[in-house]
Amino acid sequence: MIAVSKKFEDSLSQHGVLKISSLESTHHEFLNLHQNVIRDICFDPHGNTTLLSCSKSRELKLTCLKTNNTVLRYNVQNDAWTCRWSTTSTHQIFCGLNGGEVMIYDIRNTNHHVSKIMPTLQNTKMSSYFRFYSISSSIENSEDFLLVGTLQSVSVYKKDKRK
Q1: What's the count of helices (H) and strands (E) in the chain, helices before strands?
Q2: Which among 16, 42, 43, 156 counts the fewest CB atoms within 10 Å?
Q3: pTM of this prediction?
Q4: Cα(121)–Cα(98) distance, rounded to whole angstroms?
């Protein structure tokens, strides 16, 4: 499946994704997700049919692409600029806000974020960020890192193994 972020043509306030079958390109469907521009979307890397999306309507959303239903929705305090799934944890997601903060969510906690990373520079604007882990001799020895890129700087955060 291919998912393309787009505005619904017959509406001023509906933004979603156009789901296009990778087997039959004439089979497609529009799925309404947000009331404002979608800034980022990404598929669950763990094999689930869940799409993570964030928008300028200050929302972070998990949507099941099989049923077209919202699984989980978080309100954020600023425009959501970018989102990513954890590559090492099936229940952890990240949302970068326009003010430069990175909100960390555990989808088992449906109320709010579990942690926040503040930008190292004041008046920072988010551009993008990615999560990755280093390759090592064993999974137990691998280290988790979060790479955060803004318009002013790039920062790397190492996950505390005690948590």
Answers
A1: 0, 14
A2: 156
A3: 0.78
A4: 13
Taking residues 124-134, what's their average pLDDT? 53
| Both structure tokens of 84 | 């990513």
What span, in angstroms and rounded, lies between the C-alpha atoms of 39 and 83?
Answer: 9
Least confidently predicted of 2-11, 59-68, 138-147: 138-147
Q: Which two tokens stand for residue 56?
A: 């300028």
**Interatomic CA distance for residues 45 and 92, integer angstroms:** 12
Sequence-separated (6 or more) residues with CB below 8 Å from residue 84 = 42, 52, 93, 94, 129, 130, 131
Relative to beta strand 38-43, strand 80-85 is: unpaired
pLDDT at 8: 67
Q: How far apart are CA 163 and CA 152, in angstroms?
A: 29
Which amino acid would we find at residue 110?
Answer: T
